[in-house]
Amino acid sequence: MPEIVLASRNTKKAIEIARLLEPLEISVLGLNQFPEVPEIVESGITFAENAAIKAGQTASIIGEWTIADDSGLIVDALDGEPGVYSARYAGEHATDADNNAKLLDALRGIPPEKRTAKFVCHLAVADPTGAIVISVEGSCRGLIIEDDRGIQGFGYDPLFLVPEFHRTFGQLSLLVKSQISHRARAFHQLVPQLKRAIREI
Protein backbone atom coordinates (compact mmCIF):
# COMPACT_ATOMS: atom_id res chain seq x y z
CA MET A 1 0.00 0.00 0.00
CA PRO A 2 1.38 3.47 -0.87
CA GLU A 3 2.39 5.62 2.09
CA ILE A 4 2.39 9.34 2.76
CA VAL A 5 3.74 11.14 5.80
CA LEU A 6 1.63 13.68 7.66
CA ALA A 7 3.81 16.58 8.82
CA SER A 8 2.17 16.70 12.25
CA ARG A 9 2.43 15.00 15.63
CA ASN A 10 -1.25 15.72 16.37
CA THR A 11 -2.76 12.23 16.68
CA LYS A 12 -6.38 13.48 16.41
CA LYS A 13 -5.55 15.28 13.18
CA ALA A 14 -3.77 12.17 11.85
CA ILE A 15 -6.87 10.04 12.49
CA GLU A 16 -9.13 12.55 10.75
CA ILE A 17 -6.83 12.86 7.74
CA ALA A 18 -6.40 9.09 7.42
CA ARG A 19 -10.20 8.80 7.31
CA LEU A 20 -10.44 11.46 4.59
CA LEU A 21 -7.85 9.62 2.50
CA GLU A 22 -9.53 6.21 2.85
CA PRO A 23 -10.86 6.28 -0.75
CA LEU A 24 -7.27 6.26 -2.01
CA GLU A 25 -6.20 3.22 0.03
CA ILE A 26 -3.08 5.03 1.15
CA SER A 27 -1.37 4.59 4.50
CA VAL A 28 -0.84 7.77 6.54
CA LEU A 29 2.22 7.86 8.79
CA GLY A 30 2.56 10.43 11.57
CA LEU A 31 5.72 12.31 12.48
CA ASN A 32 5.96 10.31 15.70
CA GLN A 33 7.51 7.61 13.52
CA PHE A 34 10.24 10.00 12.37
CA PRO A 35 12.04 11.31 15.48
CA GLU A 36 14.79 12.79 13.30
CA VAL A 37 12.41 15.51 12.09
CA PRO A 38 12.78 18.61 14.29
CA GLU A 39 9.97 20.97 15.20
CA ILE A 40 9.29 22.98 12.04
CA VAL A 41 9.04 26.73 12.59
CA GLU A 42 5.80 27.99 11.04
CA SER A 43 7.11 31.36 9.92
CA GLY A 44 4.55 32.02 7.18
CA ILE A 45 1.93 34.75 7.34
CA THR A 46 -0.73 32.69 5.54
CA PHE A 47 -2.09 29.16 5.92
CA ALA A 48 -0.72 28.36 2.44
CA GLU A 49 2.80 29.45 3.36
CA ASN A 50 2.82 27.46 6.60
CA ALA A 51 1.48 24.30 4.95
CA ALA A 52 4.16 24.56 2.25
CA ILE A 53 6.90 25.11 4.84
CA LYS A 54 5.86 22.06 6.87
CA ALA A 55 5.40 19.75 3.88
CA GLY A 56 8.51 20.86 2.03
CA GLN A 57 10.93 20.83 4.94
CA THR A 58 9.67 17.51 6.30
CA ALA A 59 9.85 15.80 2.90
CA SER A 60 13.37 17.07 2.25
CA ILE A 61 14.55 15.67 5.61
CA ILE A 62 13.02 12.19 5.36
CA GLY A 63 12.87 11.77 1.58
CA GLU A 64 9.22 10.72 1.57
CA TRP A 65 6.00 12.04 0.06
CA THR A 66 4.55 14.35 2.68
CA ILE A 67 1.25 16.10 3.30
CA ALA A 68 0.85 19.11 5.59
CA ASP A 69 -2.27 20.80 6.83
CA ASP A 70 -2.38 24.32 8.17
CA SER A 71 -5.76 25.22 9.57
CA GLY A 72 -7.24 27.94 11.67
CA LEU A 73 -10.13 30.12 12.60
CA ILE A 74 -10.75 33.57 11.13
CA VAL A 75 -13.16 35.72 13.14
CA ASP A 76 -14.57 38.73 11.30
CA ALA A 77 -15.14 40.90 14.38
CA LEU A 78 -11.51 40.35 15.41
CA ASP A 79 -10.07 41.47 12.06
CA GLY A 80 -9.18 37.89 11.13
CA GLU A 81 -7.75 36.74 14.44
CA PRO A 82 -6.67 34.22 15.57
CA GLY A 83 -5.81 33.23 11.98
CA VAL A 84 -2.47 31.48 11.52
CA TYR A 85 -1.94 31.77 15.27
CA SER A 86 -5.06 29.72 16.07
CA ALA A 87 -3.19 26.86 17.74
CA ARG A 88 -1.16 29.22 19.90
CA TYR A 89 -3.64 32.07 20.31
CA ALA A 90 -3.26 32.10 24.09
CA GLY A 91 0.49 31.38 24.03
CA GLU A 92 3.04 28.93 22.66
CA HIS A 93 1.96 26.07 24.94
CA ALA A 94 -1.73 26.95 25.11
CA THR A 95 -4.33 24.20 25.47
CA ASP A 96 -7.60 24.11 23.55
CA ALA A 97 -9.32 25.35 26.70
CA ASP A 98 -6.88 28.28 26.96
CA ASN A 99 -7.46 29.30 23.35
CA ASN A 100 -11.22 28.99 23.64
CA ALA A 101 -11.26 31.08 26.80
CA LYS A 102 -9.21 33.83 25.14
CA LEU A 103 -11.50 33.81 22.10
CA LEU A 104 -14.64 34.15 24.21
CA ASP A 105 -13.05 36.95 26.20
CA ALA A 106 -12.08 38.78 23.00
CA LEU A 107 -15.67 38.51 21.75
CA ARG A 108 -17.28 39.57 25.00
CA GLY A 109 -20.09 42.05 24.29
CA ILE A 110 -20.21 41.27 20.55
CA PRO A 111 -23.83 40.43 19.57
CA PRO A 112 -24.55 36.98 18.07
CA GLU A 113 -25.14 38.23 14.53
CA LYS A 114 -21.69 39.86 14.45
CA ARG A 115 -19.81 36.77 15.68
CA THR A 116 -19.34 35.44 12.16
CA ALA A 117 -16.26 33.37 11.41
CA LYS A 118 -14.82 30.74 9.12
CA PHE A 119 -12.54 27.78 9.51
CA VAL A 120 -9.85 27.51 6.83
CA CYS A 121 -7.75 24.50 5.89
CA HIS A 122 -4.85 24.65 3.47
CA LEU A 123 -3.22 21.41 2.31
CA ALA A 124 0.17 21.07 0.66
CA VAL A 125 1.75 17.90 -0.69
CA ALA A 126 5.50 17.67 -1.26
CA ASP A 127 7.37 15.04 -3.25
CA PRO A 128 10.47 13.35 -1.72
CA THR A 129 12.69 16.24 -2.85
CA GLY A 130 10.60 18.75 -0.90
CA ALA A 131 8.97 20.34 -3.96
CA ILE A 132 5.31 21.32 -3.46
CA VAL A 133 3.26 19.51 -6.10
CA ILE A 134 -0.30 20.04 -4.78
CA SER A 135 -1.78 23.04 -2.94
CA VAL A 136 -5.50 23.42 -2.14
CA GLU A 137 -7.70 25.26 0.35
CA GLY A 138 -11.17 24.75 1.80
CA SER A 139 -13.32 26.76 4.20
CA CYS A 140 -16.54 26.55 6.20
CA ARG A 141 -18.48 29.52 7.56
CA GLY A 142 -20.28 29.70 10.88
CA LEU A 143 -20.79 31.63 14.12
CA ILE A 144 -18.90 31.69 17.41
CA ILE A 145 -21.30 30.96 20.24
CA GLU A 146 -20.86 31.93 23.89
CA ASP A 147 -20.62 28.47 25.45
CA ASP A 148 -19.02 25.13 24.64
CA ARG A 149 -21.31 22.57 23.03
CA GLY A 150 -20.31 19.01 22.22
CA ILE A 151 -17.26 16.83 22.76
CA GLN A 152 -16.44 15.81 19.19
CA GLY A 153 -13.39 17.17 17.42
CA PHE A 154 -10.80 19.46 18.96
CA GLY A 155 -9.66 23.07 19.12
CA TYR A 156 -12.43 25.60 18.58
CA ASP A 157 -14.94 22.96 17.40
CA PRO A 158 -17.28 23.25 20.45
CA LEU A 159 -17.65 27.01 19.86
CA PHE A 160 -18.14 26.95 16.08
CA LEU A 161 -21.82 26.77 15.19
CA VAL A 162 -22.89 25.77 11.69
CA PRO A 163 -26.23 27.61 11.23
CA GLU A 164 -27.63 25.18 8.65
CA PHE A 165 -27.37 22.32 11.15
CA HIS A 166 -28.00 24.30 14.36
CA ARG A 167 -25.05 22.45 15.87
CA THR A 168 -21.39 23.09 16.57
CA PHE A 169 -18.55 21.10 15.08
CA GLY A 170 -18.31 19.59 18.55
CA GLN A 171 -21.86 18.23 18.23
CA LEU A 172 -21.92 17.10 14.61
CA SER A 173 -21.34 13.45 13.78
CA LEU A 174 -18.13 12.48 12.01
CA LEU A 175 -20.21 11.52 8.99
CA VAL A 176 -21.63 15.03 8.62
CA LYS A 177 -18.37 16.76 9.49
CA SER A 178 -16.55 14.66 6.89
CA GLN A 179 -18.77 16.29 4.27
CA ILE A 180 -18.96 19.95 5.29
CA SER A 181 -15.88 20.86 7.33
CA HIS A 182 -13.11 23.09 6.01
CA ARG A 183 -10.75 20.11 6.07
CA ALA A 184 -13.23 17.89 4.24
CA ARG A 185 -13.73 20.53 1.55
CA ALA A 186 -9.98 20.88 1.08
CA PHE A 187 -9.62 17.10 0.80
CA HIS A 188 -12.42 16.93 -1.77
CA GLN A 189 -10.17 19.07 -3.96
CA LEU A 190 -7.00 17.21 -2.99
CA VAL A 191 -8.08 13.59 -3.50
CA PRO A 192 -8.44 13.67 -7.33
CA GLN A 193 -5.04 15.34 -7.68
CA LEU A 194 -3.38 12.99 -5.19
CA LYS A 195 -4.94 10.01 -6.94
CA ARG A 196 -3.07 10.98 -10.10
CA ALA A 197 0.15 11.50 -8.13
CA ILE A 198 -0.08 8.11 -6.36
CA ARG A 199 1.40 6.46 -9.42
CA GLU A 200 4.69 8.05 -8.38
CA ILE A 201 4.45 7.24 -4.65
Brief summary of the model shown:
With 201 residues, the chain is an alpha/beta fold.
Q: How would you characterize the overall build of this protein?
A:
- This protein has 201 residues and is of the alpha/beta class.
- The protein has one domain (3-200): Maf protein.
- It is 30% helix and 23% strand.
- The chain has a seven-stranded mixed beta sheet.
- Helix 1 links the parallel strand 1 (3-6) and strand 2.
- It is globular.
- The termini are close together.
- The model has no long low-confidence stretch (mean pLDDT 93).
Per DSSP E runs of 2 or more residues, the count of β-strands stands at 7
Low-confidence stretches: none
Helix count equals 5
Q: What would CATH call the class? A: Alpha Beta
Q: Whole-number average pLDDT?
A: 93
- CATH architectural designation: Alpha-Beta Complex
Q: Give the end-to-end Cα distance, rounded to a whole number of Å.
A: 10 Å
- Apparent shape: globular
Structural class based on helices, strands and sheet pairing: alpha/beta
Under CATH, the topology is which?
Maf protein
In this structure, how is the largest beta sheet organized?
7 strands, mixed
Oligomeric status? single chain
Sequence of secondary-structure elements: EHEHEHEEEEHH
How large is the share of residues in beta strands?
15-25%
Number of domains: 1
